[in-house]
Amino acid sequence: MDTTSGTSTGSRTPTSTRTGTETAPDTAGLHGVRHLPGEATYERARTGYQRAHAHRPEFVLAAADADDVRAAIEHAAAHGTSVTTQIGGHGLAAALEGGVLVDLSALRTVEIDPAARTARVGGGATWQDVLDAAAPHGLAPLSGSSPHVGAVPYTLGGGFGLLGRRHGYAADHVRAFDLATGDGRTRRAEPAASDELDRELFWALRGGGAGGGIVTAMEIDLVEAGEVYGGCLYADLDAVPDALDRWRRWTSTVPDDVTSGVAMLVFPDVAGVPEELRGRHVVQVQVCVADPDGEHHVAALRETLPAVRDTMARWALRDSGAMFEEPERPHAYRSRAVTVRELDPRALARLTKAAGPAAPAMCVVGLRHLGGAFARRPRHPSTVAHRDAGYLLSVLSPVRPTSEATEAEVRALHAELLAPFEEEVLGTCLPFSFGPATAEEVRGAFTSADAVRLTRVRAAVDPDAVVLPNHPLSPE
């Protein structure tokens, strides 16, 4: 899921000019189209997939190019306000109040170099844009299971892709970033940049967030991939109460070609839910095998996990958005996520019971198998931490207005669910932590040394904290 760009700290007050009896924003020096509150285009731009809250900017600037993005940052700095952007809005944690929201939807160009197996991806492009452009060449990006999220923000968070155990994090395959930073400059961050700060930005942006700026384009490696084998196995937890542990044991036997995860939830008994899942406490095992003829890797899983629904098949990667049958309707939700060394079977049993039908609020438990190429060190060091983690664990709950659960109730439930895993926790996983996080939780996503280094890089490129942070970071 994508996140709102921005990583610096600070708060600002928007500035307006008065025209007659109406208050209108001062937009002198901006060339992009401006959209004001009350306009349909304003509402579409500020409202994303996350509906727990939304940006409320003074105006939306529809950027036509990188110069418009830089001008928006300069405008915000000159008027003592903030600037940010969003594409899908899945990971929105900090909403903009006042200031400038930059709409990057016009920056969706994707250029493929088949010979070099690379892509230049515009800052507003989704992974579906990249998949569609790369597929005719037998190539694919290291995208995730929701290709309608933004390619750039996904990558800035590290990127846990469908082919991750074979190829590693999406961030490991970036060649360069073009961005506008909070100091009003345009920069190219790459490992061979002549400016040391641009080299530091290349390190910081791969896994550390936007780093005090807005990325307008990135250049990435592609991999040879057209089809995969994958889909879902659904099992009824009343019939297989130890399903999570059965999946855990199976993951210890699979090669790096197999990337998998689990979603555990209670399906509502309502129309629209498949009959075999209605009203049941279900575990959904999600599998993607890098080999389209990889059905044999799933045979042992099928044997140990009797399925009430089986969607395993060959899939074209460009159609991967349907592979795991994820919800597409926007809603309000909160989550916490951590990386862990191992999964204790006793903790998994407690988790299954505590997140089941008797839980005080609905909770979707997520597990992802890491290891493989996720554990390998990239050619160029990055901020992605906890590479020795065996698994990713997340807990997500709908909140008001999607459900009756309050933020406080959900926070308490999530703390209870994660407590049995505390001894194995390595740190926070921010890309799957949807909602405000404490300073300690944000620092926990990085090593102590990297947290200090990141704050220095961000302060260097955004000294006045113009770019709104999604997860503010400060060293201890």
TrEMBL record:
Domain FAD-binding PCMH-type span(s) in chain numbering: 52-225
Listed SUPFAM superfamilies: FAD-binding/transporter-associated domain-like (SSF56176)
Cofactor: FAD
Residue ranges, compositional bias (Low complexity): 1-23
TM region positions: none
Family: Belongs to the oxygen-dependent FAD-linked oxidoreductase family.
UniProt protein name: FAD/FMN-containing dehydrogenase
Organism listed in the record: Prauserella rugosa
